[in-house]
Specification:
ten-stranded mixed β-sheet, 24% helix, 2 domains, Alpha-Beta Plaits, globular, 6 helices
Length: 247
């Protein structure tokens, strides 16, 4: 029995997240169906994250245990011939038997892309959030530093998701905003992320830029868990899982 570590990317616009759903298309189901066709056996893959509906991934890992001697280059070519155009396999290698894509991850990096052009881009409507107007990059960067470190991010988590968590404490190691042409790119790295955490943090920084929240509001949200002190949950289309870190 082999344990394969596989890297893929996907455009999540057509999927209800990564995790398999009973009544909606998911990335996991699509990959498993292609893999079962390739190998001639039923398989279940273990993903590194549970991205939400409409969220994308530039670098996403899964592991799968198979009883097949297919070479890794043949695996990559075969999968890319069977998968739809919005999912691609980039690499495949044999991993240790105890490797698990999710539990062995040491951290992740997400980016959120905001298109600040006056007119929406009809060709990338589901790949970036359209924001009419200019965001204050310097002001948002200053506030983003407040998130760095170990904090209780309960105010930056979807309420229903908190009921199933032992802890909402996470560590953010980097959070910054850059301007690339007419786009604002938010980059955040950490040891783990709560449901909607990145989208709420970015929404909070946008509110900071608009003057709807202050740095004191962010501090209050982190210290007290007050959801109203944080910003809105922005839409999923601008969010990408960008990198996954392993030893």
């Amino acid at each position: 029995m082999r344990n394969l570590k596989v890297c893929i990317s996907y455009n999540g616009a057509a999927y209800h997240g990564f995790q398999r759903q009973n009544n909606a298309p998911s990335v996991q189901q699509t990959v498993e169906e292609a893999l079962s066709r390739l190998l001639g056996q039923s398989v279940t893959i273990n993903g590194c994250s549970r991205t939400d509906t409409g969220v994308h991934a530039k670098e996403f890992y899964f592991n799968v245990k198979i009883d097949n001697n297919i070479p890794c280059d043949g695996f990559i070519k075969g999968m890319n011939s069977l998968l739809p155009h919005d999912i691609a396999v980039h690499s495949c290698c044999d991993a240790d038997d105890d490797f698990h894509a999710r539990y062995c991850s040491k951290g992740k990096e997400y980016i959120y892309v905001v298109n600040m052009s006056p007119v929406r881009d009809v060709f990338s409507g589901k790949l970036a959030l359209h924001y009419q107007g200019a965001l204050d990059i310097e002001k948002m960067n200053k506030a983003a530093r407040l998130f760095i470190g170990e904090h209780d991010f309960g105010a930056f988590c979807k309420a229903e998701a908190k009921e199933h968590l032992k802890s909402t404490v996470r560590t953010v190691t980097f959070f910054g905003v850059s301007q690339e042409g007419n786009k604002a790119v938010f980059t955040v790295r950490g040891n783990g992320f709560l449901h909607n955490m990145v989208r709420i943090m970015v929404g909070s920084l946008i509110y900071i830029s608009e003057g709807k929240r202050t740095e004191e509001d962010i501090i209050r949200a982190l210290e007290t868990g007050d959801r109203e002190s944080a910003g809105k949950t922005i839409p999923p289309e601008g969010l990408y899982l960008n990198r996954v870190f392993y030893d």
